[in-house]
Amino acid sequence: MTVGDLLKEQGDRLRLELLSGEKALSRKISGADLNRPGLALSGFLDLFRAERVQVFGAGEQAYCAKAEAKKLADALSAMLSSADLPCVIVTHNAAIPAALAQACKKHGVPLLRSGYDTTTLTGELSEALEARLAPTTTVHGVLVDVYGLGVLIQGDAAIGKSECALELLKRGHILVADDAVQVQHRRGGVLRGSCPEPLRNHMEIRGLGIIDVKLLFGIGAILDRTRIELAIKLEQWNEAAAVDRTGLENRKLSILEVEIPLIRIPVSPGRNLAVLIEVAALNQRLRSQGYFSAETFNKRLIERMNAKERG
Fold it and tell me: Which member of 8, 140, 171, 300 is catalytic?
């Protein structure tokens, strides 16, 4: 992402205006973290994060107004000399310190000003940059919000993923994406799923074709994005295959180096998959709160067997 992209995509929303550096809008923004120069303005450049967007808030502006001119000019020149530095943003719609304006022009650094206060700008800008720069991939499957839990349903073609999601919709749950799920790795090991724009609000049901979920079920049946916290893999029933009967197996699915719980559900005639997924989502909510039904049952059973042996 370049500084020019930032202005084009977020300029109006973040109330940004470009004051100088039009020829350097191709400078790269490589991360969502921002930097408040702070000590760097006094000349202390150890651990100075030049690769981040530099935000001059009220504190930095006050320091520039009172600092000794020569010392400030030297510090700003040293800060802005890095080719990796994307841009400088001054908040509060404040007047630009003369030394900062001169240093930006000298080193060809884009100088921007925002009408927002520093807290608002840093929060909104960090969120926008993270959404734009987070590692992203697309996986095959259906993403449904079940009882507030993002459930990714996967399986072989024609196994019934979309039909299962349709039944969940009828039971009051919310569709996020069908067929293709766009996944972002957000800060803190969070996977956030959404639907690519051409497919949004639509599902493909074999025999029916493409349906518009928003028109059929209403605005409450769709959701732009949700956190993915559980994966369900639908598999054809095979009597010879081993099936987890206790729930003690701890399977994981890795997406973008983040692991989420994985449950394999055999598909056979007469099984109500929607109900099974509802129960799986509720059980996962219990597990996230520290209660493991299968482990608790297993522990009680072992204690009972040991008691009988002692008796």
Answer: 140
